[in-house]
Structures are given as structure tokens and as C-alpha cells.
């Protein structure tokens, strides 16, 4: 069977392609920009790629077209599929029909921490010998790939609330039908898709409705937005994490940066995690992963041991290099809450050493100005901030600058940031780059400039 994927180079659709190939399908695909690393990964799998949306890509005619959610009406390839009555579906629906319907699905949902928690849980199951399948919106360092079908009934998936396709505006995760569901947190985001927070809550409750009565929903004990979702109706077993009385799982940090912490279940100390990650948010993510794995039958001590060998996901506080005693980090943070937790985590690690934060407000929600009132507070634990002003921004960054307690410099170009940060940075400083895009290779350019300065 020949499957053709429109929008194949996104992480999710690239994962679908890899899974389809593993299941024995002949897979081809196209995207607007076909470039490494995803293009390289797909080509190594023997998947033929074409650049752009010329209709010649449908010769030979595929048996099924999987349409990514970035594809819209008016796209030549989409119009060809509709005009010629080719069979088509969304990525999440295809995944359900061809794989998930027969699996024990462990899904991780939430505004923040999905990729990291999914990677932790997958690694725990792998360490326990379960060889799970997985689909992750990033590349976990322990695996080096973002998706595989696995060899057991267990399948771990990052449950994204983005819509499924132009013809299916439900969130992707509604298709996953998990038996184990993690609800990390819930804030307003994706303003290009959702009108308000209640619209997102509605989709999350659709997800809750799909969990069977013998399934388990895990959530933080004091997360008001998640609590309000569950109050709409819940028919499954629930378990809570945190310091509130109703929580059956909790953690206690033994170091302020949360690189060492104890895990308790039903007030019993189960063990201590010593690992390379930092931050309260990652500690909570870890307990979520341990609890989810426990529901799948994994001993708590085994899960704790696995996390000691866990390597973080690429672009999550990833150290890109050290030059002249200056450390450069890359992080995917692009929401004020994520920026705050990332900066706070680094601060807890480096103490009084200088943190230079570089932020690209690149997401659709940021560009629309939805979070501008929160942005100036998100980096308060940094020493200085350099902010790239996106092109065609329909609001002024000046309000953010005026309201910031930390010195903020705005820039029209990435080159300007590289020049100023290179001049500013001193040995012992930490440069934290936060963006959900490529940021014009800013990390490599900083390393090169700093190398010229100090080596």
C-alpha cells in the first residue's frame, strides 16, 4: 500500500512516516522546505521526498494521502486531492486506525513538559525491558529517533492539543484513546487555533472522555485549570502528584536545583533520583513519568534507577558549547511560563553567575501579543535580556521593555544580538537561547564569535 504524506518534514508527520515505513507501507511525501535533519532521517529510511506541492507528486497515484495540519485549502496538492477524490485522512486518525487501536497507549498532555515527560516515560519502559513504541515531538537523546512501532503492546505518545487537519479541527490527542493519561498542566496558548482558554479546556475534556473506566488519569494536585476540566466529568481512576493532601505521589528536593530528589508514594519513601536535569518542573515531570510507568506495571525502584541514566531531549537546556569559560544553552521555551521555569532552573544551578537570556518571540501566540503582559516577568531571574523583534509584529515591544525589571535590549537582526552578546559576555557567564525555531544558527554564530574573542 502506497501512503503519501503532505507536510512530511514536521516532527509529528515525520514520525508518522517512520511508523508507516516500519509497518511495511510504501511511503512518500512532500513539504515546503525539505532540509536536514528530518529530510536526512527520512531518506535514510528509504522514503522519497519532493519539495513543494506540485501535483506531479501524485504520479503514481497513492492509495492514501495523509494530510498534515499545516496544509490549508488553496494549497495545490490539497486541491488536487479533493478534485480527484483521492482517499485522505489526518495523521492522528491514521495512527489510531493502523496502530493505536491495538495498543496500551500512555499519553502525555499539557501546555508544558510534554516532550520531556514523554521521553522520560519511554526511557523508563525501555529500561524495564518493555521495548515500547513511541511518537515524540522531539528527539530523545537516549534513543536518537523520534518514533518507532515497538515490540510490545505499550505505546507512549506526546498528546498535542493542536488541531488534526483542515478538515478535522479537533485536537490531535482526541484520536489517541489512552489507557494511561498524564495531564501535566493547562494554560492558554495556540491563539491562532483557540479563541480562549475555555476552548482548550473543552478539547482536554474530550480527551478525558476517551479514557476507559479501568484507565488512569494523572495530574498535579493543585492545577486549577486541570481541576476544572476534570470537574466537567471524569469516569476513570484518578491519581494526583504534588504537595496537596490528596496527592498520592510527591517529590522532595535534596538540592535546590532539583538534581537530587526523593520520591514518595502514599507517604512512603521509594527512593532517590540523582540525575543531570535541573528545575522544579523537571522534577514534577519525572514523578509523572514514574507514576505513569507504575500504572503499566513498572516497579518504582526500577523507574527511579532508569531516570538516573536519562538524557534530556535535544533543545531542552542543551549545552551547545563552552568557549572561554562561557556556556551556551539551547532551549525550546517559547511561552512565558516555559521561559520562567527555564531561567529559574538555570539560576538554581549557577547561583550568582551571570545569565544572559536571548529570546525570539516566534510562536503565533507570541506574535499576536497574547502573552505580552507576562513576558517581562518571565525572565526576572536573568541578569540581562536580548530580544529579537519579529518582522511584521502588530504590537510594540516597548511595553515589554518598559515593564521589565531586568535590562532588555531589542534587536532587528540576529547579527545584532550576536555582536552585542559577544561584546558583553565574560568568562563564567551563561548564555541561554530560547526559541521554538532555528534562530538563524545563532548558537553556532555565538560560538564562532566567542572563539575569535577568547581563543
Automatic annotation (TrEMBL):
<keyword id="KW-0547">Nucleotide-binding</keyword>
<dbReference type="InterPro" id="IPR036615">
    <property type="entry name" value="Mur_ligase_C_dom_sf"/>
</dbReference>
<feature type="domain" description="Mur ligase N-terminal catalytic">
    <location>
        <begin position="2"/>
        <end position="97"/>
    </location>
</feature>
<keyword id="KW-0961">Cell wall biogenesis/degradation</keyword>
<keyword id="KW-0573">Peptidoglycan synthesis</keyword>
<dbReference type="InterPro" id="IPR050061">
    <property type="entry name" value="MurCDEF_pg_biosynth"/>
</dbReference>
<feature type="domain" description="Mur ligase central">
    <location>
        <begin position="108"/>
        <end position="293"/>
    </location>
</feature>
<dbReference type="Pfam" id="PF08245">
    <property type="entry name" value="Mur_ligase_M"/>
</dbReference>
<dbReference type="InterPro" id="IPR013221">
    <property type="entry name" value="Mur_ligase_cen"/>
</dbReference>
<dbReference type="InterPro" id="IPR005757">
    <property type="entry name" value="Mpl"/>
</dbReference>
<dbReference type="InterPro" id="IPR000713">
    <property type="entry name" value="Mur_ligase_N"/>
</dbReference>
<keyword id="KW-0133">Cell shape</keyword>
<feature type="binding site">
    <location>
        <begin position="110"/>
        <end position="116"/>
    </location>
    <ligand>
        <name>ATP</name>
    </ligand>
</feature>
<keyword id="KW-0460">Magnesium</keyword>
<dbReference type="InterPro" id="IPR004101">
    <property type="entry name" value="Mur_ligase_C"/>
</dbReference>
<keyword id="KW-0132">Cell division</keyword>
<comment type="pathway">
    <text>Cell wall biogenesis; peptidoglycan recycling.</text>
</comment>
<keyword id="KW-0067">ATP-binding</keyword>
<dbReference type="Pfam" id="PF02875">
    <property type="entry name" value="Mur_ligase_C"/>
</dbReference>
<comment type="similarity">
    <text>Belongs to the MurCDEF family. Mpl subfamily.</text>
</comment>
<comment type="function">
    <text>Reutilizes the intact tripeptide L-alanyl-gamma-D-glutamyl-meso-diaminopimelate by linking it to UDP-N-acetylmuramate.</text>
</comment>
<feature type="domain" description="Mur ligase C-terminal">
    <location>
        <begin position="315"/>
        <end position="437"/>
    </location>
</feature>
<dbReference type="Pfam" id="PF01225">
    <property type="entry name" value="Mur_ligase"/>
</dbReference>
<dbReference type="GO" id="GO:0106418">
    <property type="term" value="F:UDP-N-acetylmuramate-L-alanyl-gamma-D-glutamyl-meso-2,6-diaminoheptanedioate ligase activity"/>
</dbReference>
<keyword id="KW-0131">Cell cycle</keyword>
<dbReference type="InterPro" id="IPR036565">
    <property type="entry name" value="Mur-like_cat_sf"/>
</dbReference>
<protein>
    <recommendedName>
        <fullName>UDP-N-acetylmuramate--L-alanyl-gamma-D-glutamyl-meso-2,6-diaminoheptandioate ligase</fullName>
        <ecNumber>6.3.2.45</ecNumber>
    </recommendedName>
</protein>
<keyword id="KW-0436">Ligase</keyword>
